[in-house]
Amino acid sequence: MFRIQRIDHIVLRVSDLDAMLAFYIDVLGCSLEREELQIGLHQLRAGNSLIDLVPVDSELGRAGGAAPGHEGRNMDHLCLHIEPFHAPSLIRYLRARNIEAGPVASRYGAGGRGPSIYIHDPEGNVVELKGSPSGS
User: What is the CATH topology of the domain spanning 3-130?
Assistant: First the structure.
């Protein structure tokens, strides 16, 4: 059906953006690739992948509920790059396993814009399945 190629990106909800940027850029060597300040998205290049930092008080961050901590979640979602990405087959595959899939949309990730779909794992974590920009 499909084979996971790599993790495309992760999204971390953060309380102290400056400290997190300093850690990932200065300590781990990531580079700031892209920002969408109006919604609170800061994308860092980590090799072939991205680490997205989303302040909890931003538009995107508020959607995740309480700030990270003992009772608040820190990760918004995990994105897995898959090939091939054939939406009708993928939706049929997921439905056959009683997994509800969100709508297919073009979203930006480490490989650029490409088709993706959101699902939830058994514990409610959001997993994004993302294809290549060409959709293959």
Answer: 2,3-Dihydroxybiphenyl 1,2-Dioxygenase; domain 1 (3.10.180)
